[in-house]
Write a structure and sequence with these properties.
The chain has five domains: about 170 residues, Hypothetical protein af1432 (Orthogonal Bundle), CATH 1.10.3210; about 150 residues, 2-Layer Sandwich (Beta Polymerase, domain 2); about 80 residues, Beta-grasp domain (Ubiquitin-like (UB roll), Roll); about 170 residues, no CATH class; about 80 residues, ACT domain (Alpha-Beta Plaits), CATH 3.30.70. Helices cover about 50% and strands about 15% of the residues. A hairpin with a 3-residue loop joins strand 13 and strand 14. The protein is of the alpha+beta class and about 750 residues long.
């Protein structure tokens, strides 16, 4: 936590200018004063819990004895500052104890067992989680950063107190970052701005979010921060009379309406002003929403009545009203926003909310503890709980389906910057999704089964493509079919991490299932070539044989072994020889006739048997893009390492090169009598260049019942007398392809048509 700011325990020396005696007195005074500040915030705890916190403080104080921070203060002042921030959020006693002890394991040789014995397992788990987070080093290498990010979010998902303590720790470190050597400022401030501030925002901790942004900004760009802060101070000074006048007028009009409210000024953070200036290319003078007010009202109906009162006092700016009470933001934020034209024509934003909404707006997920500590029945408690749990639960779901750290980051990083769009189900249930979300995102937000089975959709009663982006107020109806499956192309346009992870998980599961089936077929056929009719059953009687085979291959399960065979990670003939030996040891005899027929009838060399292809093996079998075989072509099968079965035409130069180098990986493949789908292949059509030639060729292909899936036209087609048009077309088989080629050759303007073929 404070690792970036503290010296090693062995370097716990007195700061320059103090002798050891003076340093010890200063240390004692600083520590005593700091803990007194903490105890002043513990009034919401029971006396017994306060005593537990005090015990944790004494333990931490002893553990950190002799350690100093960079500014010369005793190191214990840092854990106390972190615990004080957690106490302001009214976190429970366990969290406060963990905050005090969060560096003890890393720096002081304290073990997890010591903490369990002294403070109980829950506190020890929190400290352990924080210690693991503290060891994470965010670097410029994407895979390391992704893994670190994944660990942090998962620790947060298991117990949100971990990240709350981490954010409190980071806040204190940022407040004291000026004491750190300047060379470290950029790394620490960038990390805070890119990772910790967005997490604080996603959890609704707006006060912490703004503070982390401004502190990062001040250390990343000190000169810009200084210039902008001076400009804001000058503008504030010029607008003091205006602000006072508005406040007086608003208080008077509410008093006249006999309405209770509390008004407070609201100022944009320096970083948000700077970001707006950069993104919209504005000068400081063009930023019009510097001034703002927040009105706290007793209940929700009062918020709407207050809106009417304000609109009678000042004219509203058209298009600048947002109702985040009826439709809360993704992070649980609720408030009415309206921008009014105040005195002197200055635009002023007003935010209207209840006390409960204000707590949630500033403290987000931490509001759960704030309400538990006080009057938990107030509005906002349930919303805060729901807001926190939904996103955190989705993190655990994505982790379950995604084991690759970079992929996990890819799924969740979009959710850290939620610019929401609000849409409705046909039953008028409102749903919030990130801006740019599509129909498929909506389907997966309802339920993963709905997303997996989606085939079509309607927006506001009109049929739309699945990639259609959603707009505020849209009513979406999803049409499903029980036999439908996710399309890999969806990954190209879905916006939410949930949809992306669900689609990938389904496709991977499907691929594993198909690869397992292919592997079982390959092993069975290879075993028949060894004279054994079929695989041993997966039952108790044959469990010992399977266990021995798994030890031989190093696989964890029968399913994993078969999947590896289907993916080409293992050679079926080698596994079959070992399995045959085990079966013979168990008393099973080889069938000489079967062995002779399987080994030598179809081929001159020992084979693994023939695999029949009908086009239904979508994931486990790939048709090589270099030669694009179709039914009727002479073909060979290559078991690529980890790629499954790749089918080439026999005359393909790439296949012939692989056969010379890797012949044991080739197996016999044959076409089924009735393939289940069409197959893509490539053709090159040389044409007389002229007006309408592409349309004539396309019409000829359509007349021959060939679907065009891709067209590629060579550069310079507009000027040359002749040009090559390259098509990918879908045909049923080789006979259909020949008919298509004949049809094209009879077409006007076509000089020559050939099938694409890779060269050696």
């Amino acid at each position: 936590m404070g690792a970036v700011l503290k010296p090693h325990p062995a370097q716990g020396l007195a700061p320059a200018g103090l002798n050891p005696g003076e340093a010890s007195v200063a240390a004692a005074n600083a520590a005593a004063a700091s803990f007194a500040a903490l105890t002043a915030n513990l009034g919401y705890l029971e006396p017994a819990e306060v005593e537990q916190v005090r015990q944790a403080y004494r333990f931490a104080d002893q553990a950190h004895l002799g350690q100093l921070r960079n500014n010369g203060e005793p190191y214990i002042t840092h854990p106390i500052a972190v615990a004080t921030q957690c106490a302001e959020w009214k976190l429970d006693a366990q969290a406060l104890m963990a905050a005090l002890l969060h560096d003890a394991m890393e720096d002081c040789g304290v073990t997890k067992t010591d903490l369990i014995e002294r403070f109980g397992a829950p506190v020890a788990e929190l400290v352990d989680g924080l210690t693991k987070l503290d060891k994470l080093q965010f670097t410029t290498r994407e895979e390391n950063q992704a893994e670190s990010f994944r660990k942090m979010l998962l620790a947060m998902a298991r117990d949100v107190r971990v990240i709350l303590i981490k954010l409190a720790d980071r806040s204190h470190n940022m407040r004291t970052l000026s004491d750190v050597p300047r060379v470290k400022w950029h790394r620490i401030a960038s990390e805070t701005l890119e990772i910790y501030a967005p997490i604080a925002h996603r959890l609704g901790l707006n006060q912490t979010y703004r503070e982390l942004q401004d502190l990062s900004f001040s250390h990343l760009y000190p000169w810009r921060y200084h210039v902008l802060s001076k400009a804001v101070a000058k503008a504030r000074s010029r607008g003091r009379d205006l602000i006072q006048k508005v406040q007086t007028e608003v208080e008077a009009v509410f008093a006249a309406a006999n309405m209770t409210m509390r008004i407070a000024g609201r100022e944009k953070s320096l970083h948000s002003i700077y970001r707006k200036m950069r993104e919209k290319h504005l000068s400081f003078a063009q930023v019009t929403d510097l001034y703002g007010f927040r009105l706290i009202l007793p209940d929700i109906p009062d918020c709407y009545r207050a809106l009417g009162v304000l609109h009678q006092l000042y004219k509203p700016v058209p298009g600048k009203f947002k109702d985040h009470i009826a439709i809360a933001k993704l992070n649980g934020y609720q408030s009415l926003h309206t921008t009014l034209v105040g005195p002197s024509g200055v635009n002023i934003e007003f935010q209207l909310r209840t006390e409960g909404m204000n707590v949630v707006a500033e403290s987000g997920v931490a509001a759960h503890w704030l309400y538990k500590a006080g009057n938990s029945g107030k509005a906002g408690d349930a919303g805060s709980d729901r807001m926190g749990s939904q996103w955190l639960q989705s993190l655990l779901e994505i982790q379950y389906e995604t084991h690759d750290a970079a992929e996990f980051w890819d799924h969740v990083k979009v959710d850290l910057f939620p610019d929401a769009v609000y849409v409705f189900t046909p039953r008028s249930q409102i749903m919030a999704l990130p801006r740019g979300a599509t129909v498929v995102d909506f389907a997966y937000a309802i339920h993963s089964d709905v997303g997996d089975r989606t085939v079509a959709a309607k927006i506001n009663g009109e049929q739309v493509p699945l990639r259609a982006e959603l707009k505020n107020g849209d009513v979406i109806e999803v049409i499903t079919a029980p036999v439908s499956n996710p399309n890999p192309a969806w990954l190209g346009f879905v916006r939410t991490g949930r949809a992306r992870s669900k689609i990938r998980h389904h496709l991977k599961t499907l691929a594993r299932a198909e690869s397992q089936g292919l592997g079982e077929k390959l092993l069975t056929q290879a075993l028949r070539a060894e004279g054994i009719e079929k695989l041993p059953d997966n039952d108790a009687a044959h469990q010992e044989i399977w266990d021995k085979l798994l030890r031989f291959t190093g696989s964890r399960s029968r399913e994993e072994l078969l999947t590896d065979l289907g993916l080409g990670k293992r050679i079926a003939s080698i596994v079959a020889k070992r399995l045959m030996t085990l079966l013979r040891e168990g008393g099973e005899k080889r069938n000489a006739v079967l062995m002779s027929r399987e080994r030598y009838t179809a081929h001159d060399h020992v084979s693994q048997g023939a695999v029949t292809l009908d086009g239904s093996q979508s994931a486990s079998v790939q048709y090589a893009p270099c030669c694009r075989p179709v039914p009727g072509d002479d073909i060979v099968g290559y078991l690529g390492r980890g790629e499954g079965l790749i089918v080439h035409r026999s005359e393909c130069a790439n296949a012939q090169r692989l056969q010379h180098r890797d012949s044991e990986r080739f197996i016999t493949v044959v076409w089924a009598d009735e393939p289940t789908r069409t197959f893509e292949t490539g053709i090159v059509t040389t044409v007389h260049n002229g007006k309408g030639v592409l349309a004539r060729v396309a019409a000829a292909l359509a007349a021959a019942e060939a679907d065009i899936t891709h067209i590629d036209m060579a550069d310079g087609i507009a000027t040359g007398a002749a040009a090559d048009l390259r098509f990918l077309i879908a045909v049923r088989d080789r006979a259909h392809l020949e008919a298509v080629l004949r049809h094209l050759r009879r077409t006007a303007s076509v000089l020559k048509v050939v099938r694409m073929m890779p060269t050696a």
